[in-house]
User: What shape does this take?
Amino acid sequence: MGMAACNPRLGTRVNSLFASHYPERLGCIYAVNAGYVMRAAWAAIRVFLHPATAAKFCFPSSDVEKSFSSICDEETVGWLQREINLNKTSPFPESQMRFWEGPLSPDDHDPRGTASYVREYIEIASDQTDSPSHCPHPNISLKTEKAHRFSTTV
Assistant: This one.
């Protein structure tokens, strides 16, 4: 995807969303293959952000394996590399446009995530319902349960 596919208001809306709802939950944002225009825009925007927030934005090299091997397992690094390469292709693959669906054949890339993620969070949920679904990540379901208990006792 290129600049033509980007909505200029997206950045301000994402920033507003994170600032209002997730102020200290963000670990890091990785902008892979950020071009010259993005880097120039970042240099201008960075001065308006708190230093702790600005430090959470990373512009890794285009070598995904080198950039992510210290924070991701081998399966995830491989998945990221394939995902990035598919997102650069033209015409854009139909499977990437319908990223919420599984691959048509078992050998195809799954845009929903790594094989272990799909097994643990998507296939289990889909087996339990009639429609495709996702299991919440354990840290999300625990917080939701605590919030629900708190709201019902007040």
The radius of gyration is 19 Å. Residues 117 and 123 are 9 Å apart (CA to CA). The beta strands are 29-30, 57-58.
